[in-house]
Amino acid sequence: MVCDICGNDQRFETLLNPGFSGEYAGSKFIRCNDCEFVFLYPMLSDRQLQEFYHETDYYVYEINEDWKRREADFRAHSLMRDTGSSKGSKLLEIGSSYGYFLDSMAKRGFQCEGVEFNRRAVEKVRQKGYVIYEDPIEDICDAIPSSFDVIAFWHTLEHVPDPRTFLRRVNRLLKMRGICAVAVPNMDSLHFLSKGTRWSWFGMPHVCIILRI
């Protein structure tokens, strides 16, 4: 066992045994005692992860569309305020779901594209006229490197088995002086402190929690 973030191969502790069943039985959330990176071990295979994203009931965004649109507007406003990004910039959202954040940024004059694996979500977003990639991130960065002024992914990184490699590939997609906007679960939050091992982020298909980027 080796920590993907710091390379530690000695000092670990079991943070949580979620009691998964079936083919996931035995997987536990492990914490690196050197950098506090939390990850699932044994890690799920690419096939197992893809199964979650191809299920039509994975997304419940339609049920909460009004709230999700308000959340997207807040993120769009915060991104422009905090980074100085301006209309005309080319933006990629990784994990674009039903495209609410893309809608919000497009209203602000951004050229928006997305990455999404759920087929139902891809169909809905393409109907709006957006370019949506279904390829693995390594294929995208090989095909169109240095293409985006802004790359955003909101609660996507915890779905990635190898976050360090993923971030390097994201960097390849950015133009010089491009901006990467990220949201991840916060283990210092009141939500985590109140829920402990019942915290909602300790569950499939979340496979890691990175505390420092």
How would you describe what is shown here?
- By secondary structure, the protein is of the alpha/beta class.
- 32% of the residues lie in helices and 22% in strands.
- The protein contains seven helices and nine strands.
- The strands form two sheets. A five-stranded parallel beta sheet has the order 6-5-4-7-8. A four-stranded antiparallel beta sheet has the order 1-2-3-9, with no helix packed on it.
- β5, α4 and β6 form a beta-alpha-beta unit.
- The longest helix is centred in the middle third of the chain and has 19 residues, at 65-83.
- The two termini are 21 Å apart.
- 28% of the residues are buried.
The string of secondary-structure elements, in order, is EEEHHEHEHEHEHEHE
* N→C terminal distance: 21 Å
Strand arrangement, major sheet: 6-5-4-7-8
DSSP strand tally? 9
- Secondary structure: helix percent: 25-40%
Helix-strand category? alpha/beta
Largest sheet: 5 strands, parallel
Task: Please state the average pLDDT score.
Answer: 89
SS field, number of helical segments: 7
Strand % is 15-25%
Instruction: Give Rg in angstroms.
Output: 18 Å
How would you describe the shape? Answer: globular
Which ranges are low-confidence, i.e. pLDDT below 50, for 5 or more consecutive residues? none
At a glance:
With 213 residues, the chain is an alpha/beta fold. The chain is 32% helix and 22% strand.
